[in-house]
Structures are given as C-alpha cells and as structure tokens.
Design a protein that fits this description.
Layout lengths: L9 H36 L5 E5 L2 E5 L9 H14 L3 E6 L5 E10 L2 E6 L3 H37 L4 H32 L8 E3 L1 H18 L3 E6 L6 E3 L1 H17 L6 E9 L2 E8 L33 H11 L3 E7 L3 E9 L5
Parallel strand pairs: 7-9
Antiparallel strand pairs: 1-2, 1-5, 3-4, 4-5, 6-8, 9-10, 10-12, 11-12
The structure holds adenosine-5'-diphosphate (ADP).
Adenosine-5'-diphosphate (ADP) binds next to helix 6 and helix 7.
C-alpha cells in the first residue's frame, strides 16, 4: 500500500529543468575560461620577458620570468587603467631591485589586458655607452680648449713679449687644428652612422688609390725614419665605392702604423685579390697592442694604454671611422697584434659584381 504521494507541482518542474540548465551553463563557462587561460598561457609562455594577462583585476596567465615580480598592486592598477581608458599605456614601474622598468599595457579584448615588460637591457647599455661617449668627448674638447684659453690670456696680459706670444699663437693654432679635426671626425662618424646614410658609389681603382697614398705619405715616413714597403698584385679588379672615404680609411690605417712605429721600423702595405674580394694588409713593426686592449680599439675615443714614453697625438676616433667606412662598403676589418712586436690591420672589400 502506497503511504506517500509524489507531488510534482510547478516548482518541482522548474527545478528539474533549470538546475541541469544552470549546471550546463556553469560547466560551459568553466570550460570557456579554462580554455581562454590555456590560450593566454601559451601566448605569454613564448615571450622571453615577463608578461601577464589580466581579466579585469585578476591575473589570468603569466610566464616564468614574471614569477619573480613582486609588486602586483602596480600591475593591477595598470591593467585597470588600460581597461578604463581603452588604450595602450606604457608605464615606468620598479622591480624588486628598485630598478625602473618599462611595462606596456595592451588592451587585447573586452576586460582583458596584456602586460609586457619591455627589454630595457639594450636601452640601458646604449644609455650608459652614450653617457661615457659624451663624457669622453667632453674631456677631448676640454684639454685643447684649456690650453687655448691659457695661451690666449698669456698673450693678452703680456703684449710686449714678442717671442713668447709668437710661441703661444703657434700652440693656439695647433690646438685649434686638433679641435677642428676632432669635430670633423665626429661629424663624419655621425653621418656614417645615420640610418639613412647612402654611400656615393663609383668604380674605384683601389690599387691606384693605394699607390697614390704611399707616394703622398713617403716623405712623412722618411722624416720619421721608417721604411715604407708596397706590394701590389698586378691586374687587380675594380671595386664599387666612395674614393674620398676609401682614401681617408687607408690614410688613417697607414698613419697609425707610422705613428705607433718607432724610428728604424718598417710599415708594409700589400694588396691582393682573394676569391671575390680585395685584401689590403697594413703591417708594422711598431709597439703593438696588448691582448686586453685589442677588442676595444675600434670603439670611439678609445686609446690603448702604451708602454712607450713617446708622445703620440691622437683622439681615438681614427679606427672607429675606418670601421664605419669599411662596413659601409660591405667589407670587413680585422686586427692582429703582438705587444712589442707590431700589428697588422686587414681590410677586405668585395669586388664589383659584373652587371
Ligand atoms: P688614435 O687617434 O689614438 O690613433 P685610433 O682610433 O686610430 O686613435 O686608434 C685607437 C688606438 O688603437 C690608438 O690609440 C692606439 O692605442 C691603438 N692603435 C691603432 N693602430 C695602432 C698600430 N698600428 N699600432 C699600435 N697601436 C695602434
């Protein structure tokens, strides 16, 4: 005998249909967010720098480099601001070492923000490089200017000292020439480094250029009592380039070889064709460059420490210019040296490709 009655009224009916529906919707939502999280996780994991994805104020995904980040409050605020303004925002935040880092907030979808820490290591290196560079330029300019000022005030304070004043004026002229050269070199480097720089290329007989420079510089070598040898392979191909700059490049290298070689030494210049390039070697039997200095000699304003007490004038810009010119011609520049024995600089320039 049935002693209870199953009552199936409208409420029971609603429960039977809406509960599964709600469960289905909840499951669907859970599945959707899980897939979305996985998708974003895949995106941020492929990035080498710290990255996060926020949905509203909650972190949805982040990559391994981001796990070291401590200050979540700043990120939440940035994410909120991006959503509120509906635009990308780049903000300077501070990492755990109190170092300023740049974080870019990108509005990628409704309520979803991608936060990317930008790679500042290159920028920081560049900033420090340019700070040093400006400091070095300052020093380079200051020394001749101090000398000029000193002699100028000497001349004005003792107008009757004819001999002394003549000597001072000579020094002033020399320092002014040095300053002009320095500024000219700086301007040329800036021009060569400019992203829109275009080389004025014409067909150049590089062999004839080398020969002419050796002729021009032979008197100087003789005055310094340095032997100057030239060895040219006959019938060398022409190259495409700017003859003015190529001349400047060779002059700098040969002048350095003469400067850093004491009297009685030799500078030998040779030119040959190897595969599809011209190879020019400038070898000297001079002071040489230490192993520690060798990697830096092509940097602007770098002057190697010298063991010799002989004073050699220079600004440390010559080789930086040589490197820029060689690179602009699609060539390579290498240096080998042994301290106390001498150096060899090798320039390789591609031969003109026949049309
Ligand atoms: P600088 O005006 O001082 O000569 P460069 O840029 O031409 O500047 O050269 C950078 C440095 O490299 C020089 O200061 C010098 O120490 C070293 N150097 C360059 N060429 C030679 C060489 N042939 N022999 C020895 N040292 C050299």
């Amino acid at each position: 005998m049935l002693d209870f009655v199953i009552y199936f009224g409208p409420l029971e009916f609603l429960a039977c249909f809406t509960l599964p529906l709600l469960l289905m919707l909840g499951g669907g939502w859970y599945w959707y967010t899980r897939e979305q999280r996985r998708e974003w996780q895949r995106v941020v994991s492929s990035l080498p720098y710290p990255a996060w994805v926020f949905r509203k104020e909650k972190p949805l995904a982040w990559n391994q480099p981001a796990t070291h980040w401590r200050s979540m409050k700043d990120l939440v605020k940035l994410s909120k601001d991006v959503q509120r303004r509906q635009q990308h925002i780049v903000r300077q935040l501070y990492d755990e070492n109190a170092e300023s880092v740049s974080v870019r907030g990108v509005n990628v979808a409704q309520n979803v923000t991608l936060l990317l820490m930008e790679d500042t290591s290159t920028t920081k290196r560049q900033q420090s490089y340019y700070r040093n560079f400006i400091r070095n330029v300052g020093h380079e300019l200051k020394t001749p200017l101090t000398i000029i000022q000193g002699h100028a005030s000497k001349v004005s304070s003792s107008p009757n000292d004819i001999d002394g004043n003549a000597a001072s004026l000579g020094i002033i002229a020399g320092e002014a020439k040095h300053l002009t050269q320095l500024v000219d070199n700086l301007l040329l480097i800036a021009r060569l480094e400019a992203p829109d720089f275009q080389l004025d290329r014409v067909r150049v007989n590089f062999s004839a250029l080398v020969e002419q420079i050796i002729l021009d510089i032979s008197d100087l070598a003789e005055t310094r009592q340095i032997g100057l040898d030239l060895n040219l392979q006959p019938g060398l191909s022409l190259i495409q380039g700017d003859p003015v700059q190529l001349r400047q490049m060779l002059l700098n290298l040969i002048d350095n070889a003469l400067k850093y070689t004491p009297a009685g030494g030799t500078v030998a210049v040779s030119l040959s064709e190897i595969d599809d390039a011209l190879s020019c070697r400038i070898r000297d039997t001079g002071e040489g460059i230490s192993e520690e200095d060798l990697p830096y000699i092509f940097e602007k304003l770098y002057r190697a420490r010298r063991t010799s007490t002989r004073t050699v004038e220079g600004s440390g810009l010559g080789l930086a210019l040589v490197q820029q010119i060689v690179q602009a011609h699609g060539g390579t520049l290498t240096a080998n040296s042994t301290l106390g024995k001498g150096s060899v600089f090798i320039v390789e320039l591609p031969i003109e490709v026949a049309a």
